[in-house]
Amino acid sequence: MPEGGAAANGYKYKGGAYVDRDKPAQIRFSNISAGKAVADAIRTSLGPKGMDKMMVELSKAQDIEAGDGTTSVVVIAGALLDACAKLLQKGIHPTIISESFQKAVDKGVEILTSMSQPVQLSDRETLLNSATTSLCSKVVSQYSSLLAPMSVDAVMRVIDPATATSVDLRNICIIKKLGGTIDDCELVDGLVLTQRVVNTGVSRVEKAKIGLIQFCLSPPKTDMDNQIVVSDYAQMDRVLREERAYILNLIKQIKKAGCTVLLIQKSILRDALSDLAVHFLNKMKIMVVKDIEREDIEFICKTLGTKPIAHIDQFTPEMLGTAELAEEVNLDGSGKLVKITGCVNPGKTVSIVVRGSNKLVIEEAERSIHDALCVIRCLVKKRALIAGGGAPEIELALRLAEYSRSLAGMEAYCVRAYADALEVIPSTLAENAGLNPISTVTELRNRHAQGEKTAGINVRKGGISNILEELVVQPLLVSISALTFATETVRSILKIDDLVNTR
Predict the structure, then answer these.
(1) How far is CA 491 from CA 235, 356, 484, in A?
(2) Rounded CA separation 143/453 (Å)
(3) CA 392, CA 467: separation in Å to the nearest integer?
(4) How far is residue 26's CA from residue 430's CA, in Å, rounded to a whole number?
(5) What span, in angstroms and rounded, lies between the C-alpha atoms of 122 and 324?
(6) Coiled coil located at which positions (predicted)?
(7) Is the pLDDT of residue 273 over 90?
(8) Burial of 200 (C-beta count, 10 Å sphere; 0-12/13-18/19+)
């Protein structure tokens, strides 16, 4: 086939293969429109729902880093993709766009940092405001006055405010229990177990000595399956006697160590607890909770200061934890919880019991508490606050537009497009608050141009006001990571220029 003919059809002839010249451009646009579709779908609900893989991953990254602002990050990325599409259509090379965006984001982080206010962890008021702002966009927002202080207290109990740089959220155990209402949620300084107490005789132990065992209190089994036929009644009796003696021996050792509350890890191979053992433990007045999950062991040990005991020979008094009170609490008609409080040498852990009338409410409450905890964690990581309500984004848009005037050539153009794209957050906020997005954003722009850095959209009053006075604040880390993650994602989407179809 002659060269000319191939080139005329828009094909290049390259080392014996036909290459479609328009394909990279098409692929870019199809990726951009996929990402934009998600952003548009997600814009109406600033909440955790993602559609397209890239965007979902992006949302996850934001969730892990900051724990809040998962929607903002997708919406920003969508707006940036939109800007990319326009720039690409004007024939600007993707690499130039990508590099200018990087420049813009570096400048943006600088601007954000300069407009933030430092915050002290001892300043409870500020922490509460941030937690409340995060809870306001959730389904359980009417309970924010209860959940916000709970989240702040929980974080404050598990860290040392003077030295902490991050919060390990694994130290805050969230326990979901059906029944009651969200008003019944509570923060328990100690340990809460959803398992039932096995022996009904003992449901309250004061000055408890708590042992956590990982072996079974039941007759031992052989390693291989085998059957023993017992023909003689005397032998049968002996088997039963041996079993009793074996179990009694185990339980005497437990009693000897002074243990009054026994937690037993779930066993797969055989019953962790035989009826006989329950009977003996009951006589000894030892409270028993069985079926402790494998993954809860670490938390329990940290909370109570116990050590898990893997064999009866290690069951010594120093392995036990001590607590003021271990009791089974009745929750008005909806099941029971075991609470262990007043630990003598507690690790820095805390439990939150989440109640709700149905599964959906509980899960929503759990997610919301998690978000609020993350917001406080962000403040521990980076102790600075920034106004919410679209104020930082508008400020960024203005400053980046100014900055773009100092650049030359294509870069200026791209940074300008980046700046305009950031206005999508305030306009989405306005739209979702039922305001006219265009006039609201214009007004915001004016306010910021006059130097009101903290003017933002006040969703509660349906207008524009100084957002800091309204106490709508968010941690600096949320804004910064949203901006950087969104930009990184857009840059990586820009770099894709071909798709290989997989079966």
Answers:
(1) 79, 43, 10
(2) 30
(3) 10
(4) 34
(5) 29
(6) none
(7) no
(8) exposed
